[in-house]
Design a protein that fits this description.
The protein has helices at about 25-40, 65-75, 80-90, 120-135, 135-145, 150-160, 170-180, 190-195, 230-240, 265-280, and strands spanning about 55-60, 110, 250-255, 255-260. The chain is mainly α. The two termini are about 20 Å apart.
């Protein structure tokens, strides 16, 4: 969500954020499944007929730490193994990422078997993201909005976290771009949730004072890295946002997200959101 410039208010209040639904793009999932299978079965050699493949689902919006934990469980390796592999492996990341794969662990369904290694699986996720996010369309879209391709992945990760539905993504992206263009703080609760390693709809005034570069209430501009791993729909919205002058949005109830450029109207929508939550 977006909110007003922070002002001192006592107690706890409800702010407005919508975590993106953890869904898979069926087409992308199938495409990656077909592409991943051969490279992963070649990681260690051996008799293919003796292998029994299973799958690992990486949902859209999942954070890197969550992906690491999922890989550890899927491969039945000690907790922390995949995190260490992410540090040690030479992943094909853009220079701006500074070896942090957040945003580049592409969401899809990956086949795995007894020969799959954490480093090999992470490497293929990153290579797939580079293929999806590195095309001319993404580069041109980023340039048109005065941001880098890496920053566009960051915008897409915020869109993935904040949009209630796929249909809302292009409008959420427009709000992000409008606020950046005006020099307004983004004030996205999803970035605070990332800083605090949580997911919640409730944000306190104390939370907005969190000392973190991911606190987009205190710091203008984008956070330093993506806040999750976006899918193609969110990336598409980031490079081709809807047309509009919106600066605020709130999901009053599932399927009913309201966008406006007028703060007074936004406050009315917020009141309706709060009433709906109380009634529920």
């Amino acid at each position: 969500m977006t909110n007003e410039p922070p002002v001192a208010r006592p107690g706890r209040r409800t702010r407005l954020t919508r975590r993106g639904r953890l869904v898979l793009i069926a087409g992308a999932a199938l495409a990656v499944t077909a592409a991943v299978l051969v490279p992963l079965t070649l990681l260690s050699g051996g008799d293919e007929s003796a292998r029994r493949a299973t799958t690992l689902v990486v949902p859209e919006g999942r954070r890197a730490t969550q992906v690491y934990a999922s890989v550890d469980r899927a491969l039945d390796v000690p907790a922390g193994t995949t995190r260490k592999a992410a540090v040690d492996a030479r992943l094909e990341l853009p220079e701006a990422a500074r070896s942090n794969p957040e945003g580049y662990l592409f969401p899809a369904t990956y086949p795995i078997d007894s020969t799959t290694s954490p480093a090999g699986l992470l490497g293929y996720m990153v290579r797939t993201a580079n293929q999806r996010f590195g095309g001319d369309r993404i580069t041109a879209g980023a340039r048109a909005h005065g941001v880098s391709a890496y920053q566009t992945v960051t915008i897409a990760s915020i869109v993935q976290a904040e949009a209630d539905t796929t249909a809302d993504m292009a409008r959420v992206a427009r709000v992000v771009h409008n606020r950046l263009a005006l020099g307004m703080p983004l004030q996205m609760d999803s970035t605070l949730n990332y800083a605090l390693n949580r997911a919640t709809l409730d944000t306190s005034h104390a939370d907005t004072r969190t000392d973190s570069p991911y606190n987009t209430y205190e710091h203008k501009g984008l956070p330093p890295t993506p806040i999750g791993n976006p899918g193609e729909e969110a990336m598409r919205a980031a490079v081709a946002p809807a047309s509009g002058d919106w600066l605020y949005f709130v999901t009053v109830r599932p399927g009913d997200t309201r966008f406006t450029n007028r703060y007074a109207e936004h406050r009315k929508n917020v009141e309706e959101f709060n009433k709906h939550r109380r009634d529920a």
